Amino acid sequence: MPQRRKVYEGKAKVLFEGPEPGTLVQHFKDDATAYNNQKKGIITGKGVINNRISEHLMLQLSRAGIPTHFLRRLNMREQLVKQVEIIPIEVIVRNVAAGSICKRLGLEEGSELPRSIVEYCYKSDELNDPLISEDHITAFSWATPQEIDEMFTMSLRINDFLTGLFIGVNLKLVDFKIEFGRHYQDDLVRVILADEITPDSCRLWDTITNEKLDKDRFRRDLGGVEEAYQEVARRLGITPESANQENESTIKLR
Ligand code: TMP
């Protein structure tokens, strides 16, 4: 098989040049990092499960009218996506207080926020993704005012849709991080949802017990990390059995 050209390698994913112009192959790794790379580990099978979860959520969102980069899943760890110019902003939507907002504003973890809150961070590992305002984004030309409006509106629609989808499977969408990209086609440029939506980038709690079923299990050494990701996949109707069948040797006969 010819060597594929690596376009970018991140903490949990690798992007390769795609088979057709304007496409990329997004490969999901098992690597996990937290606290800006200070904590590193491997969550066995995470890449396989995240590939399926992101596929599922992106397809549902696109059916609900949100433009996304997802084209199709290629294999257990890879999906074909549209090539975009990533806007260097992480958009975070919060419904319940958890993580950095608790420290920053002295809130108790689990307390309901008065309404959903949208935050922006500048994508920079060296600077630890600092929280920024809309004024920073326009002053430094990271995005135009119109692009900020589109990201803001889409983020709240994504939040509404995903909140409902997760409630249907007894999961509370506490918060999530998404990224957008500029997709150039013919003479048009359009802002579309890119990157991934997985338990790496969301906080998901069981609606009854508040048990954490996301990357906080890894960040906080709570154990049962792989099982939590599998449970999210199982509740979404993505069979963990198929996620385990990455290669023949891993299939156990029962
Ligand atoms: P935070 O509470 O640490 O700011 O995180 C908010 C949400 O964003 C949480 O669901 C985890 C996600 N997130 C990422 O996916 N990547 C990141 O680099 C950060 C800081 C947060």
Structural summary, described in words:
The chain has helices at 46-63, 100-105, 134-139, 145-167, 216-219, 225-235, 240-244, and strands at residues 6-9, 13-17, 23-28, 31-34, 39-42, 70-73, 78-82, 85-86, 89-96, 112-122, 131-132, 171-185, 188-194, 202-206. The chain is an alpha+beta fold and 254 residues long. The strands form 3 sheets. Strands 8, 9, 10, 11, 12, 13 and 14 form a 7-stranded antiparallel β-sheet that branches. Strand 1 (6-9) and strand 2 (13-17) form a beta hairpin.
Largest sheet: 7 strands, antiparallel
Q: Give the CATH superfamily of the largest domain.
A: ATP-grasp fold, B domain
From the spread of the alpha carbons, the general shape counts as globular
What is the helix fraction of residues, given as a range? 25-40%
What's the architecture of the largest domain in CATH terms? 2-Layer Sandwich
How far do the termini sit from each other? Answer: 34 Å
How many structural domains in the coordinates? 2
**Which structural category fits the helices and strands?**
alpha+beta
Nearest-integer average pLDDT: 94
How many strands in all? Answer: 14
Number of helices: 7
Q: Tell me the strand percentage band.
A: 25-35%
Structure characteristics:
254 residues, alpha+beta, Phosphorylase Kinase, domain 1, D-amino Acid Aminotransferase, Chain A, domain 1, 14 strands, 29% helix, globular, disordered C terminus, binds thymidine-5'-phosphate
In short:
With 254 residues, the chain is an alpha+beta fold. The chain has seven helices and 14 strands.
